[in-house]
Amino acid sequence: MDKTLRKEYFDKAFKLHSAGKIVEAQNFYKKILTENPDDCEVLNLVGMSELQTQNYERAEEFVKKAISVKKVRYFYETLAGVYFKQKKYQRELETRLEEEKIFGLNYDLAFLIGLAYRNLLDFENSEKYYLKALEYNGKSRDLYFNLANLYTVFHYFEKAKDCYLKCISINSNDRESKYFLGLCYLRLKDYKKGLVYFENRLCRETAINTSAVTYPDLIPKRKIWQGEDISDKVLYTYYEAGFGDMIMFARYIPLLEKRCKKLIIKPQVELSELFRENFPEVDVMKYFYDKRDWDFDVHLPFLSVPYVLGLNTDEMFISRNGYLKANKENADFYKREFFNNDKLKIGIKWRGNTYYETDRVINIEAFEGLFGLDNVKVYSAQTFEGSEEFDKLAHKYDITDLSKSFKDFSYTAAAVENLDLVVCNDTSLAHLAGAMGKPCAVLLPYNYNWRWHTDLTRCDWYESVKLYRAEKDESWNSVMERVIADINTWGYTL
């Protein structure tokens, strides 16, 4: 193919590619490759187009061929990107290290190698390359943010704080860094500083905006409560974040009741009945009220309660021995229908909301060690996402599925009341069990949530909860073995 025609095809293909018209672009790319199969620039672009359409094997094939024709830095960048998208971090790392060997290091490559090592949980090499990247650009907010994340994962919290503060010094409006700095303080149980920065969380803003959309004639005209005297006023507080967060902070509802003339709470619908049963003097909304039938003086997103109350660290962990109870009528129903046996009754759950975090998902096979224990009866409390996994073991073991009986958390609490022990991932069931004072073993991933703090030998929030963190490269099966070995320490005889 002559150069003029090749340029014509290439320009058309590149224009279509840039416009997101992948198939049309590929048609022109392939016309060039029919005549010039070793056109490395086009081979790489076809690989990029296949990557964009998630055809990873073909993407790898074309980019590797481009590299075999000519070693070009950005070809290696494309290939590493193919592996990154597939979470093949070891192959990504090998590709980037080869790029470094051939072309040398620069800021972008040092940053990406550091990230690859971090994804492989290799702290020393990840830090090494992030620090090399700093030599090229000491004012990169993204670099300091990623370095802070690295230090957080590996529990170097003082270093993490310094990096987040550096991010904020680079950009004083960096709310994300302020939020994660807050989590860093909270993890260290410095709630005086942590709660201030925690106010930068995105879900707080989302909760306020959602309420403003629901009540456009009320929310914009009412102040957010800042802690002033409201003894003669009505306070409206509403949910944000997940079920577990709401259950964990429900311990502060009695404190709120004392601060205002009337308290109105809007939890998630699934929690409303449980809250109504436990806090009878509070106006707990199930669905939103008609705006013509009610009013309030001040409002507040629910996770801001401890900040506005001005709680210190010791006051954060009130009611560790339990503050929620099950509905007796419902609990009696569950006892008759599901728990009429003399065995040790263990409830399990392996998955929660995976929108934000997938590390907390436990493979259901890890629970098999529980099923073979003598005098033990296992109950599944897994609902919604992940419930399809139940069938994997149901045909092999005597497991009772409780999930289909759960209409809301009031029913879940009634079932938990009849359990002897709960074993689950970091999910709302763990918070419910803890809030009820029910023995519960919580299985935490290596990189676990801030709320469990740094000392995992105890749970600050719930006296009845024990924490089991997966060590680096430890399987959930191995973690479960530790739980089973400890069951006798709960006072149960296997």
Describe the structure in brief.
With 494 residues, the protein is of the alpha/beta class. It has 24 helices and 11 strands. It folds into 3 domains: 3-168, Tetratricopeptide repeat domain (Serine Threonine Protein Phosphatase 5, Tetratricopeptide repeat), CATH 1.25.40.10; 204-316; 328-490, Glycogen Phosphorylase B (Rossmann fold), CATH 3.40.50.2000.
Radius of gyration: 27 Å
Largest sheet: 6 strands, parallel
For the record, the count of structural domains works out to 3
So, the CATH homologous superfamily of the largest domain? Tetratricopeptide repeat domain
How is the secondary structure organized here?
Layout: H1 3-18, H2 22-35, H3 40-52, H4 56-69, H5 73-85, H6 89-103, H7 107-119, H8 123-136, H9 141-153, H10 157-170, H11 175-187, H12 191-198, H13 202-214, E1 223-224, E2 230-238, H14 243-249, H15 253-259, E3 260-266, H16 269-278, E4 283-284, E5 298-301, H17 305-309, H18 313-316, H19 328-338, E6 344-349, H20 368-371, E7 376-380, H21 391-394, E8 399-401, H22 409-417, E9 421-425, H23 428-435, E10 440-444, E11 465-469, H24 476-486
Parallel strand pairs: 1-5, 2-3, 2-5, 3-4, 6-7, 6-9, 7-8, 9-10, 10-11
Helix pairs in contact: 1-2, 2-3, 3-4, 3-5, 4-5, 5-6, 6-7, 7-8, 8-9, 9-10, 10-11, 11-12, 14-23, 16-22, 19-22
